[in-house]
Specification:
By secondary structure, the protein is of the alpha+beta class. Helix content is 26%, strand content 21%. It contains eight helices and 16 strands. Strand 15 and strand 16 form a beta hairpin. It starts with a strand and ends in a 10-residue tail after the last helix.
Length: 377
């Protein structure tokens, strides 16, 4: 079961939802960077469960314990960074009825098809979103490293059900749009319960989640992510491009079903002159005036904001009865899922998307930097 991503920066996740702990090992981090433990804890708290009726009531501290990879000064030392996060609030008996009856929409059936009952079922095992906790621990450190180079990464809920937030102003690369985008990034979650730019959107999304929860159902949504301050020239053409690297990592986030960059699927209805981003000289540099490409051309960053959106499916584990099959007898079965599950996983996935974006960018910068611009702390 491979659980590793990255080329120059390699991240390996381990553990299951109800194992003693989950964690990660990160190889290739630049040495000499002092990790801000308090900032990392604040970032981790954004993903943690039990924040309100819109999340699972499972309570976990999610405090990352760094057991290797730092020197006595708290700086990266070149050795692999190892992080452990304890699982302290598991209820495996909630999954007794799922041992041979797969949940529709979940990986229960495909895992059974591959490992024939040897897979770890409680909590979803290694398929669980619980594994995004160590993913955020690694990504939180990558975010700090990128911030030291002037790169900011921010994501927000752009949709939950039919409720929409305003979109990041990142398709225009003018100075005015850049200033507006910076203000939007600061506004995310500042005065709202959910990570939205517009507080009214947060309220509308909470209503959608609550309606689904009361109906013993779940609801999906979408996340928009932007990275600013990147130099032009990071990445590689063909199979190791920035889109490839981000997409591969993004699909490692449970429940992600689609991704688009820049104007995405909208380009199918555009003409060339509408989609192309003209260039101009600004402060002695060539820059695109618009950003329909989402900051990436030929797999390489253009210097404009890197913009992408992810679609996240509704939570598979819902309380209403569903039709399934008892796999040991191959007889029809009605399944009602017990346990603690998010009626909408999308809000807690927002920091996970930021983590994945930061890891992919840092990996590409280390592996394929612009000519003469290696990633140096």
């Amino acid at each position: 079961m491979p659980s590793t991503m990255g080329t120059a920066l390699k991240l390996t996740l381990f553990g299951q939802s109800h194992s003693e702990a989950v964690g990660c090992v990160v190889e290739g981090l630049p040495s000499g960077f002092v990790v801000d433990r308090e900032e990392l804890s604040r970032f981790m708290a954004r993903r943690a469960p039990g924040q309100g009726v819109w999340t699972t009531p499972r309570k976990e501290a999610d405090e990352p314990r760094i057991v290797g990879g730092l020197n006595p000064l708290g700086a990266t030392c070149g050795a692999p960074l190892a992080v452990v996060i304890e699982n302290t609030n598991t209820r495996s008996h909630d999954y007794d009825n799922l041992m041979a009856v797969p949940r529709p929409g979940h990986a229960d059936f495909t895992a059974w098809s591959k490992w024939h009952g040897n897979q770890d079922v409680p909590g979803g095992g290694h398929f669980s979103a619980r594994l995004t906790a160590p993913l955020c621990a690694a990504g939180g450190i990558a975010l700090q490293m990128l911030a030291s180079k002037g790169v900011r990464v921010r994501a927000h809920l752009c949709q939950v059900g039919s409720a929409l937030d305003e979109r990041f102003d990142a398709l225009d690369n003018s100075p005015a749009a850049q200033a507006h985008l910076a203000a939007q990034m600061e506004a995310v979650g500042a005065t709202s319960v959910l990570p939205t730019v517009d507080p009214a959107a947060s309220e509308a999304m909470l209503a959608q989640i609550d309606a689904a929860r009361r109906d013993l159902d779940s609801v999906g949504g979408a996340i928009e992510c932007v990275a600013t301050g990147l130099p032009a020239g990071i990445g590689s053409p063909m199979f190791d491009g920035m889109e490839n690297t981000i997409a591969r990592a993004a699909f490692g986030i449970p429940a992600v079903k689609a991704i688009e960059f820049g104007r995405g699927f909208e380009v199918a209805g555009l003409l060339g002159h509408e989609n192309n981003d003209p260039y101009q000289v600004r402060a002695g540099s060539c820059v695109p005036t618009t950003n329909n490409a989402g900051g990436i051309l030929g797999g390489i960053t253009s210097g404009a904001p890197l913009l992408f959106r992810l679609a996240v499916k509704p939570t598979s584990s819902i309380a209403r009865p569903q039709q399934s099959v008892e796999l040991t007898t191959m007889q029809p079965a009605e399944l009602q899922v017990h346990g603690r599950h998010d009626p909408c996983v999308v809000p807690r996935a927002v920091p996970v998307v930021e983590a994945v974006c930061a890891l992919a960018i840092l990996d590409s910068w280390l592996a394929w930097p612009p000519e003469g611009q290696p990633f140096e702390l």
